[in-house]
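This part of the workshop introduces the protein records we will be handling. Each record describes a single protein and holds just a pair of labelled lines. Instead of coordinates, the fold is spelled out as a row of discrete tokens. To make this concrete, we reproduce a full record directly below:
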Amino acid sequence: RENWLSPNKTATGLNLLRCIRVVAALMLLATRLPAQEGNVWIFGRNAGLDFNSGVPVPITSAIETIEGSASVCDASGQLLFYTEGSTIWDRNGNPMPNGTELTGLVFPNYSPTASTTQSSLIVPLPGDPNLYYVFSLTDGTILSKHNLYYSVVDMRLNNGLGDVVPGKKGILIDSALSEKLTGTVGKCCNIWVVVNHNMGSFHAFEITAAGLNTTPVVSPSGIANRFSYNYGEIKFSPDGNRLAAVSQPV
């Protein structure tokens, strides 16, 4: 569901890359989300898959994206909401009342997360089944840089369909990043959200029951080529102990 795209590829190459990336991202979320919270995948252009029956059943959705997306279900496997980083749709396919323009950036006929490899990530607040952090990573097509924002969704709002909490929408927490965003469950009842700085370091933000720590743990990683380093994906191993990063030529 954290899907993507990189410029300057052939049409055939693009389709293949999209398929590979969709599968890789779906595998990541399926192995790291607890219980049935990853049972419905929403991605692509009005697409989705429902695994609640034990086999993938194609479904339709309101999403329209060629790259990153994320979705989350409750403990019973019911879809709660989904996003591509700029808009959050509820389970009925309607934009949440306060769930549009998540980054606060508005361009005519263009979404600021439209061309981000891993544009969005949904993280539950540990210990609270009603609150979720939604992370949005902008692309560099217009901004010439990648910014990371977060919003908070409360499922008790909007008659149980959920909405973004007033004052907790589109909060900037990092910039000068690549298009890489992922998360993993920690070992101390916490969750780590990780992004990749475009000059060669990983920034890890911790989420605990007390909330999001906006001061990241910075780990230098080195860099081979600054421009190709901006594109690609990062993915944790199933046990969360290792992180793989992929860079793409441009």
Q: What stands out?
A: Residues 11-32 form the longest helix (22 residues).
